[in-house]
Design a protein that fits this description.
Number of helices: 12
Radius of gyration: 23 Å
Helix content: over 70%
Distance between the termini: 74 Å
Order of helices and strands: HHHHHHHHHHHH
Structural class: mainly alpha
Strand content: under 5%
Shape: globular
Amino acid sequence: METMKLIFGALLWAAALLPTVALAHGISEADKVAMLSGGYVQYAVLGAKHMLTGYDHLLFLFGVVFFLTRFADVAKFVTAFTLGHCITLIFATFLGITWNFWLVDAVIALTVIYKGFDNNDGFQKHLGMKSPNLLAAVFVFGLIHGFGLSTRLQQLPLGDDQAGMLGRILSFNVGVELGQIAALSVMLMLLAAWRRRPSFERFSVVANTALMWVGGLLLLMQLHGYSHDADPNGFRFPAEEHKHVHEDMEISKPDPTRDNIN
């Protein structure tokens, strides 16, 4: 029961903190400045940090390993995911292939929803069809997640020297893998403890439904962020208009000194 509370608490915590974490899950100005003179170790540390704060990547991995009980199965699916995100992280970054990171993260949110839906046998129950090949899906989703990591990494000063640039990309990737191993270790221990309890059978559907809801919230947040990014003045209170309103209020404010004189 305690393990179930920990897992549900983690999902609720993720949902509650998504607005804050969504802003933090990126490359901060402090990181950019630190990387100007950063060596390979610093890039590896940043990669690990990015994965450990990567709520979207971790939620997807949680869905992938949720029902896996054999080490061989965990290794197979995690390897497919890792291979996928290594390919796009390295090659997209090295070749300078990028896209709006809000939209990439929105697609990643869809992968989280997909995994929760698949874990609840959604294809069989609601669509009357077999689930798509899971190993292939995890590999393809790994490519998408790697592209998301690449859009973040390309915000950093990687240098013009190709050998140095490749070294920084690989160092970042090594950090990502170390962060993934650390996060997966905790997930697998919690899930292994929970599976031994009767509550796992009763609440597994609820847990994966919660995973879908969190993924849906994440999707809406990323699309909202893209809307601001694409048209920052297209909302009800654009920044400049908001500023002018305050200036007008200051001008029209009555002068108490003048009232006293009269």
